[in-house]
Amino acid sequence: MAAEDEENAAELKLGDEFLKAKCLMNCEVAMILEHRLEQAQQLSDDPMNQMSQVFEKSLHYVKRFSRYKNPDAVRQVREVLSRYQLAEFELCVLGNMCPETVEEAVALVPTLKDKSRGLDDEAIEKMLNELALIKKFE
Q: Which of 38, 48, 76, 78 sits between 20 and 30 A of 97, alpha carbons compared?
């Protein structure tokens, strides 16, 4: 890989394998794993059915760090962030970290300030306010 093609998340150079990948926020992963756990418990003859330790730890992690618990709120967050034509990676970083200020958002996702995007501080502030409103009424 040439030096100019080196992977760099700050510039959205994530590598070929991520070009078409669908990223998930922690809250989305938590919903998927909880559904899988419910399925396994329903299908099991053994009420003490044990999921793998990796599964349990993964579920615990995403539940602990999920900013949104309500499925409707999760859907709304994805819808709000999608309106700003963010890359999947950017959308998930903002959805997971829930920055409160424009400075925090830009520190987490420097590509928000790309001139080709047309996102000024006011637009980023509006986006963050929409996310805060969802969290407030969750």
A: 38
